[in-house]
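#struct-pred

JT: dropping the chains for the assembly here, can someone run the whole complex?
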Amino acid sequence: MGVLDLDRLWSGDRRSIARAISQVENEAPASAELLRAVFVRTGRAHRIGITGPPGAGKSTITSKLAAHYRAAGKRIGIIAVDPTSPFSGGALLGDRVRMTDVDLDDQVFIRSMASRGSLGGLSRRTMEAVDILDAAGNDIVLMETVGVGQSELDIAGAADTTVVALVPESGDSIQAMKAGLMEIADVFVLNKADRAGADQAVMAIQMILNFRKHDGWMPDVLKTVASDGTGIDLLAVKIDEHRAYLERSGGLRLKRRSRIEGRVRDLIAARLRVDFWTADRQALLEQRLDDLLALAVSPAQVADELVTDFHRVHDDRG
Amino acid sequence: MGVLDLDRLWSGDRRSIARAISQVENEAPASAELLRAVFVRTGRAHRIGITGPPGAGKSTITSKLAAHYRAAGKRIGIIAVDPTSPFSGGALLGDRVRMTDVDLDDQVFIRSMASRGSLGGLSRRTMEAVDILDAAGNDIVLMETVGVGQSELDIAGAADTTVVALVPESGDSIQAMKAGLMEIADVFVLNKADRAGADQAVMAIQMILNFRKHDGWMPDVLKTVASDGTGIDLLAVKIDEHRAYLERSGGLRLKRRSRIEGRVRDLIAARLRVDFWTADRQALLEQRLDDLLALAVSPAQVADELVTDFHRVHDDRG
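RK: done, full complex below.
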């Protein structure tokens, strides 16, 4: 993998970024040290999430937005958050290829990451990759959900500003409301707005928005045709306005606080899991599974036994 | 809530079932005792999951299948697994109403439950409600995902037999494959098969299936028009065949084993979370969050501190 030059990483060198993310993904021995150094350099980048149902044009919006920021002289990184099949266990190659297909200049760093963390929300590795892009001096980190389901909502927890993309097709806004997307949007994009039904869709979204509580920020509903770039400039303006609002209102600090708290809790749960599931306790569970299958004992009873054993072993060490 | 008569529960009395599920949902003092008594009476019901993308007609398939089983003299319970918005925090009233709308006779017990557990998969409460329906003497428990996203895959972990419903609309099978639905299906239903493109959709699914590994059971792709009942009888036959296959092959025991193992692990994680997050340690995290926001320390360092404190306190007790 080669040695990682931290100074080159802080200066935004793309190969160093790629190497750093790989170290974190592979949990290389040096990755704990690296993450500590990275974390204390975070906090500069604007973290923008792009989410919405499949077919809303999220990838196109992301690449056009990236091109817009590049033209404005900003440094930008992209994380494509993949729905990882629990069975195949990997990101979907098709989408990965599709992202790199996009006509961005080669200064934009793009990386695909698996979506789900053990406690819900984005996976720890994904959050750490965003930290790396932040610490490497990017002004903007775009997080885009790729493909289907699962991570649509999770991305809001990782972003400062969440853009929800919808299309005019009937019922889409209702589905989005049901899925909780209406509640996480800071900016709405009605993409493919050159299709029939666009104005009705915008009205439907606005109507649903009126039922939602607002604390000083009312999400706009912008029409875009991302494929030809229509509306992207205005979208960037709205995203900037939201960032300014967050800084003014103290909301940015609150978002960061809850994001960091979630990460600490996630790390602790992972540590406890490792501490708990020793080979001995694993073997004990295996034994008891036969009793469970024979219905001689209940899951709660076996959980009690194992937790009691955990505490006893701890006490004995004292 | 009134006192729960266990004998009436085992006999399948609907009010007793409703009361038992409520006790478990509300974590009533007696619920641990109840769950123990329930668990040792489980293992009889066939647990069938109905899943698929929004708009595939899952509710209609579920109600027609339930009517079919009723006509065959079977006892059946239904759990509608709701995608719970992390913000509204409740099941979606609209879908709940829709389910009870269905023209089932009043002997079929239907209940809506929130979908997500803390460690992914169906929520613990949902699994426990299924146990209650099983222990109450139902021959069949149908679990249906309602609405959008999230729980589409989770249901497979809770079911003996998983039915995936799709519709002829182009691209649906590709989306399903991406979302991992192809890998969890024991039986495919191409619903609304009177629409254009049905035969092509069936062929597309079969083609994708050929790329999947099979261990003795090859999922069929059945055409249904659930709204008028077409194909439901054959679906019931296939579901029965799958159950027979599971019993013959030992797969049922394996599925149960991994399901129960998951539940024990989930209970243990919940217990450890409670044991760990004392008021003192909560306060310690609050303090350190300011240092984290000031970038003076990293999440991993704070997690280390707290876990070390947890082990130290344990050791001191010994």
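JT: nice. Chain B touches chain A through 70 residues (CB under 8 Å). Chain B has two domains: 38-249, 277-317.
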